[in-house]
Write a structure and sequence with these properties.
Strand content: 25-35%
Bound molecules: succinic acid
CATH topology: Hypothetical upf0131 protein ytfp
Radius of gyration: 16 Å
Largest sheet: 3 strands, antiparallel
Distance between the termini: 53 Å
Oligomer: single chain
Order of helices and strands: EHEEHEEHEEHH
């Protein structure tokens, strides 16, 4: 049986595993927030970066990309790979993906999604809310083994643009980061 993985952050632009189909769509009841600390990809333990997680939000939707993985051996490789890549995301949820705003039935049911929960007991890297300026300053400073934190943000901004999704939180942050960088130069 095929499985689906839903990506709302870096997974939108880079799956990193074999898949048979990519579907642009959204999930209901969540919003994307730059509240997760990253000490392994886009920051270090001394200077954690910030990456996105999902926060429950009634009435809101979050756009992303879902990947269908059909072959059993591809599934095994993908899930092992994602265990490592998403290891700072402590929760796995299974979500319905919609492609039409007024559709009552989902296009895909039970897609796997990785979430970083706000529970500091199980997710020690969680950073939580802060002002746009504070989050932006942290992003400007941080860099990890996967590259600068600002690159993560700009790649996500561009990936969302490409799928036609306007996410104010991401756009505001990207604009603030650009402002800070231009001020520094
Ligand atoms: C995701 O992309 O779905 C998870 C968060 C990330 O890896 O950026």
């Amino acid at each position: 049986m095929a499985i689906w993985v839903f990506g709302y952050g870096s997974l939108i632009s880079k799956a990193g595993f074999n898949y048979d189909e990519r579907l642009v769509g959204f999930i209901k009841g969540y919003r994307r927030v730059f509240y997760q600390g990253s000490t392994d990809h886009r920051g270090t333990p001394e200077f954690p970066g910030r990456t996105v997680t999902l926060e429950p939000a009634e009435g809101e939707i979050c756009w992303g990309a879902a990947y269908k993985i059909s072959k059993e051996e591809d599934q095994e490789i993908a899930l092992t790979y994602l265990e490592v890549r998403e290891k700072q995301y402590d929760r796995k949820e299974y979500v319905d993906i919609f492609t039409e705003l007024n559709a009552a039935t989902p296009a895909v049911s039970g897609a796997l999604v990785y979430i970083a929960s706000p529970d500091k007991k199980v997710n020690v890297n969680y950073l939580g809310p802060a002002s746009v300026e504070d989050i932006a300053r942290q992003i400007v400073q941080a860099e990890g083994p996967s590259g600068p934190n600002r690159e993560y943000l700009f790649v996500l901004e561009n990936a969302l643009l490409q799928i036609g999704s306007k996410d104010e939180h991401v756009i505001d942050l990207a604009n603030e980061v650009r402002r800070i960088i231009s001020e520094e130069n």
